[in-house]
Amino acid sequence: MSRYLVINSLDNVGVALGDLEKGTTFNVNGEIITIRESISQGHKFAIKDIKQGDDIIKYGSPIGHSTSNIERGEFVHTHNLKTNLSSVLNYSYDKTPNTVNNEIVEKKFLGFVRDNGSVGIRNEIWIINTVGCVNKTAENIAKRFDNVYTFSHPYGCSQLGDDHKTTQKILKNLVHHPNAGAVLVLGLGCENNNIKEFKKVLGSVNETRVRFLETQSVNNELEEASKIIIELQNIISKDCRVPCNISELVIGLKCGGSDGLSGITANPLLGKISDTIIDNGGTSILTEVPEMFGAETILMNRAKNDLVFNNTVSLINNFKEYFIKHNQVVYENPSPGNKDGGITTLEEKSLGCTQKGGNREVEAVYEYGNIVTTKGLNLLNGPGNDIVAVTNLAAAGCHLLLFTTGRGTPLGGPVPTIKISSNNQLAERKKDWIDFNAGVLTTGESIDKLSDSLLNFIINVASGKETLNEINNYREIAIFKDGVTL
Fold it and tell me: Is the pTM of this model over 0.90?
């Protein structure tokens, strides 16, 4: 079994698939490479002599430039590699030919068909708080019952302008989410986002399944809420799972705590799953805009048309402007954990991250807080922060999330969050976090066989199998803000 990988024939670095000791030798393209110092799994070494100032090539694309002369076999990382990224750029549309052989699979999942025709993969009762002041009240209500969940947040009052509207949009989308068989909207009474105001944003709802309680208006909010929950439980108890086509599935693509193997194992695996879901009429959503920087042209050139291309350009440049507005450099990434795992620059991280989106055309670009309604691959505006991105994807309508990680995290969102490890060691150590191991791709497993296994796992989750975040009750939300709090 190979102990290293050269991803693309254009690359001038290789990646250690396991820890490499100093003095280890390889024959790379007819040249003997001797490892000059110990290199950890996921990290890079030069397979050619590289001059100071030359580009370092990985995935067939530059991931930065060398800050010193680098000899074959030498360790390549933060001490001798620096990003090429700068600020806002101009782009041209060079459409990638769409040569797709659709992979049609005869698979169905067991879901819940809602009155409005949407499909859910869970039939839970959600308590949605209009304001952070009732977080603990909601938690105490949920503790009294099975299959009742709430998602604490600090907002709903003392916010101005767009931040207030954003909070309302995210909460509105959760109320309407098809995984919720019923919802209790819990308010305080004096907040900006009080129930009366929130209803204006919420729009039409099934009043049998969506109920409201203002805690300042009742003597005992716990008892009043409990009565409502019991009524809702009786209603959803009559709901049954029925066979649904996977064309109904909306999946969210996310990575967090990435390492040097994420772009080699777990993320390409998600790309293959995304392609399969799309080929069968389904939807996948890619977000984490800052983690597209450096690989954005790949997505731009897969845009369906000029409009989608221009929207993608705006998506990238507007997020860069957000950084600049706050006097931050656009390449302040990767995280310390990413670097420990072998990722050096944002370009390298992005080239690995965007592989989650597979190879299909980009059909549409959506703003943060909007529900995605376009079939196929969609881009969603939003940051890379794990909990904010997870919430963003759930609020956009994802039934479940595919979350790759090389470092590990227990985090989960309002919807099933399937954790996929990029390496075998993490899957072995963190069995209470990791649902699926993509690390076996480094030890000979084929990506076709593994993608079949992951697709079957997804079908089972969509049909009711609990993910580890659900078993451990790791269900959290965080709402993006960019303005004044009173």
Answer: yes
